[in-house]
TrEMBL record:
It comes from Halarchaeum nitratireducens. It comes from the Archaea. Keywords: Membrane, Transmembrane, Transmembrane helix. InterPro entries: Glcn_transporter. GO terms for molecular function: gluconate transmembrane transporter activity. This is Gluconate transporter. Coiled coil: none annotated. The chain crosses the membrane at residues 7-24, 30-48, 60-81, 101-134, 141-159, 179-199, 234-254, 260-286, 298-319, 331-352, 364-387, 419-440. GO terms for cellular component: plasma membrane. The keyword Lipid metabolism does not apply.
Length: 441
């Protein structure tokens, strides 16, 4: 019989083993998570065969719900980037607002473009536009860079169908529409408030001589290239959101949605609708000849995300099978019915983010750990807390840090004052939102 203290300790050891393999041995995160799962199950008395079976079940259960939607979402993002739709969204939003609101327009641009894609892709697509905008205005360079960071990070962290918030309902057992409402209803305000705070804070610490290496993109981009309209560019992003929220709204208003509405609001159909819209736009702008290659290019990052996300689901399922999460709660005295569980989810995500860099690994792992805790706190509050912690402090062990630093021509200090500072501020407001949901539901 494995004692309660040992069960709780096994979670800590399993996470430590996983982090050691990722950070010091340079193992693939998915492989590292599987190794950590093996230790967790075997050391906690689950048995050899049952541990392996639980790993497969946990991986498969999560992939059943989110595998195809993740693939479709990454394809949508790739098609928008290649067709010029992503840049069109950003240029339109920043072009219709007064000068003093440009940082907020940039943040919203980053958020909208990042909804169906990785943070890295959104930032890569929009960086030339942001640099060009800076050259045409008197806005400080860290303001335009940091605003884009906050917007893209906010959508990537809070709003499905990016992988972590898309996985949250499956892991924590609550409706996807609830995550969509929480992500949009709290994520977007958090992005705007965090941008306002960031703009004021970065002015106090920025030193252009020390923080900038060399700003890139001296030559203007070719404006003669055909681009889709703003409305058509936004359609692949808006369609899945509308279809998913349609089901949620119908359930709230009529008690239950019709079978056809429920069909339209499923993850697979909603994301497929967005993908078909993105394909139509891509073909109209770029042509059919490039379509197959672009979709094939999207499958490579999709495979990486699926592997990490699925392995995180396996790790969480093994923890649930051993009931180690409840043992950890009992040991540290965190009650399942109070706000302490929300702060625990944030803390776990933050520690994992600081330690190993990947927000995907940190968020998924934090959610899977708290998923095994018996609590009356609503799933969307736990998800926002875990995801906010997983976003909190990105630094030199995070690939996103280097994407921002290198693409915008910053020194390491400049990256810390834009990427690290911006995400840290946003994570605080994400936690505030999580606490608010927990108190009101």
């Amino acid at each position: 019989m494995v004692t309660t203290p040992l069960l709780a300790a096994n979670i800590v050891i399993a996470v430590a083993v996983t982090l050691f393999l990722i950070i010091y041995v340079d193992f693939d995160p998915a492989v590292s998570l599987v190794v950590g799962s093996l230790y967790m199950g075997i050391a906690s008395g689950l048995g050899l065969n049952e541990t392996v079976s639980s790993i497969g079940t946990g991986f498969g259960n999560l992939m059943t719900g989110i595998g195809l939607p993740i693939i479709f979402g990454i394809m949508i993002g790739m098609l928008l980037a290649e067709s010029g739709g992503a840049r069109k969204i950003a240029v339109t939003l920043t072009g219709v607002v007064p000068h003093r609101f440009i940082p907020y327009a940039l943040a919203l641009s980053g958020a909208i473009v990042a909804i169906p894609v990785f943070f890295d892709v959104a930032f890569l697509v929009l960086t030339p536009m942001v640099v060009a905008l800076w050259r045409e205005t008197d806005i400080d360079y860290p303001v335009v860079v940091g605003s884009l960071v906050i917007g893209a990070a906010g959508a990537h962290t809070f709003i499905p169908p990016t992988p972590n918030p898309l996985a949250a309902p499956e892991i924590l057992g609550f409706p996807l529409g609830q995550m969509m409402l929480a992500g949009l209803g709290l994520g977007i305000p958090a992005v705007l408030i965090a941008t306002a705070v960031y703009v004021r804070l970065v002015a106090l610490v920025w030193d252009a001589d020390e923080d900038i290496e060399e700003i890139p993109f001296e030559e203007a981009e070719d404006e003669g290239t055909k681009q889709p309209s703003f409305l058509s560019s936004i359609l692949p992003i808006a369609a899945p959101i509308v279809l998913i929220l349609l089901t949620t709204t119908s359930n709230a208003v009529f008690g239950s949605a019709s079978p056809f509405v429920q069909f339209l609001g499923t993850r697979i159909i909603a994301m497929l609708a967005g993908l078909l819209a993105a394909i139509a736009i891509f073909v109209s702008v770029v042509g059919k000849a490039e379509l197959s290659e672009t979709l094939s290019d999207a499958t490579r990052p999709a495979g990486m995300v699926l592997a990490i996300t699925g392995a995180g689901g396996a790790f969480g399922y093994v923890i649930q099978q051993t009931e180690a999460a409840n043992a950890l709660v009992d040991l540290i005295g965190v009650g399942g019915d109070g706000l302490a569980i929300v702060f625990l989810a944030f803390f776990i995500g933050m520690v994992l983010r600081v330690a190993q860099g990947s927000g995907t690994v940190a968020g998924i792992t934090a959610m899977t750990i708290v998923a095994g805790i018996e609590t009356s706190v609503t799933g969307s509050a736990l998800a926002l807390a875990a995801l906010s912690g997983g976003m909190s402090i990105g630094h030199i062990n995070d690939s996103g840090f280097w994407v921002v630093t290198e693409l915008t021509g910053l020194e390491v200090t400049g990256g810390i004052k834009t990427y690290t500072l911006g995400e840290a501020i946003l994570s605080v407001f994400g936690l505030v939102g999580a606490v608010g949901i927990a108190l009101l539901t």
